[in-house]
Write a structure and sequence with these properties.
By secondary structure, this protein is mainly α. Helices cover 79% and strands 0% of the residues. The radius of gyration is 31 Å and the shape is elongated.
Length: 75
């Protein structure tokens, strides 16, 4: 095979591969937009709910403080 034929085949393969990727990405964008219209808005509102602040437990704080004090005392 001559270089011109190899170059033509490589360009055809390049076009085929890039075309396939482009078509798949377009289909994926379309599918995502369809699913986003089908899914109710309740799902997004649940994810945006504020996190519950945990209650301060004085026993845990005392235990951690004691453990840190003992660790530093041994060093």
């Amino acid at each position: 095979m001559e270089i011109e034929q190899l170059l033509a085949q490589s360009l055809q393969l390049l076009g085929l591969g890039m075309g396939a990727v482009f078509i798949i990405l377009i289909l994926l964008i379309g599918l995502i937009s369809i699913v986003s219209k089908i899914v109710p808005d309740e799902v997004s509102s649940v994810a945006a709910a504020p996190a519950v602040k945990p209650a301060v437990n004085n026993d845990h704080i005392a235990a951690l403080t004691s453990a840190i004090h003992q660790y530093r005392k041994r060093r």
